[in-house]
Design a protein that fits this description.
The structure is a single chain. The protein contains nine helices and two strands; from the N terminus they run ααααααααββα. The chain has about 240 residues and is mainly α. The chain is elongated and about 85 Å long.
Length: about 240
C-alpha cells in the first residue's frame, strides 16, 4: 500500500463541542437546584410596582392598581413560569450550539473514516460517491465498502439519537417560519421538535456523546480495524445506552 497523509481540521469542531461541556454541566446543576419563589417573596415587588404605577397613573386608586399588579404576580408565582423565564434563553442557545457542533463532528468523523479507509483499500475514488449520501446512510452503510461485516442497527438508541439530531439540525439550518393568514395555515414551517427544557438537557447529553459513540461502535463492529478517529472524549460522559 502506498503511503498517505491527511488533514485533521475536524479537531477544531471537536474542541468547540468540548468547550460547551462546562456550560452544560453548570446549567444542568442550576436547573436541578432551582427553587421557585413563593407568593410572600413578591411583597417587595408588589409595593415597588404600586409606587411606579402611581407615578404613571396618578388618577388611579391603590385598589385599582393592586388588582392589576396582583394579576401579574399570580402569573409570575407559577413555578413553571419562573423556571422557563430563568432558563429558556440559556438552554436554547446551548441546545442549538450543541446540535450544530455534534452533527458537524459526526459527519466529519465518518467522512474521515471513509476517505482514509477507502484509500487504504486502493478505492479512494469511491469516496466522492459515498460522501454525497445522507449522514445516517453514511454511518449505516458507508463502512461496509471497507469492512463488509460491519453492521449498524436502526433499532437502538444510537440510531435514534443520530436520527433526532439530524432532524433538528436540518430544521434549524434550513429554517422556515410557520405562517397563518386569517387563521388558516398557509406555510407549515420547519419540523422542529419543541421539547421541554428538561428534555433539551436530556437530548444534549446524548448529542455530546454521539460522535464518540458512533466511532466506538464502528471500532467494535470492525474488531478494532477501523480508522482511529475521536478516541479521546474527555471530559464528555458516555451515554451508555448508545452502546447496548
Amino acid at each position: 500500500m502506498e503511503q498517505y497523509s491527511h488533514t485533521a481540521d475536524y479537531v477544531y469542531i471537536e474542541l468547540a463541542l468540548k468547550s460547551q461541556w462546562d456550560n452544560f454541566e453548570t446549567l444542568s446543576s442550576e436547573m436541578k437546584a432551582f427553587k421557585p419563589k413563593v407568593l410572600e417573596e413578591f411583597a417587595g415587588h408588589r409595593q415597588s410596582e404600586l409606587v411606579r404605577l402611581h407615578a404613571l397613573n396618578p388618577g388611579s386608586s391603590d385598589e385599582e392598581l393592586l388588582v392589576f399588579i396582583d394579576g401579574q404576580i399570580r402569573a409570575k408565582v407559577d413555578p413553571n413560569f419562573q423556571f422557563n423565564m430563568q432558563f429558556v434563553d440559556r438552554v436554547m442557545a446551548l441546545y442549538v450550539t450543541v446540535v450544530f457542533l455534534s452533527h458537524a463532528l459526526s459527519e466529519a468523523a465518518i467522512n474521515a473514516v471513509l476517505a482514509i479507509g477507502l484509500a487504504t483499500k486502493g478505492a479512494a475514488d469511491l469516496f466522492q460517491m459515498l460522501e454525497r449520501a445522507d449522514i445516517k446512510e453514511k454511518w449505516i452503510t458507508g463502512p461496509k465498502a471497507i469492512y463488509p461485516a460491519y453492521e449498524f442497527t436502526r433499532a437502538g438508541a444510537l440510531f435514534q439519537t443520530l436520527q433526532h439530531l439530524t432532524r433538528q439540525r436540518n430544521a434549524f439550518i434550513h429554517y422556515k417560519v410557520e405562517l397563518e393568514v386569517a387563521g388558516k395555515k398557509v406555510l407549515p414551517g420547519s419540523s422542529i421538535d419543541r421539547p421541554s427544557l428538561q428534555s433539551c438537557i436530556s437530548w444534549m447529553e446524548r448529542y455530546f456523546s454521539l460522535p464518540y459513540d458512533l466511532c466506538d461502535n464502528l471500532r467494535l463492529r470492525t474488531q478494532g480495524h477501523a480508522v482511529a478517529v475521536l478516541i479521546d472524549r474527555r471530559p464528555l460522559r458516555v451515554f451508555r445506552a448508545h452502546l447496548k
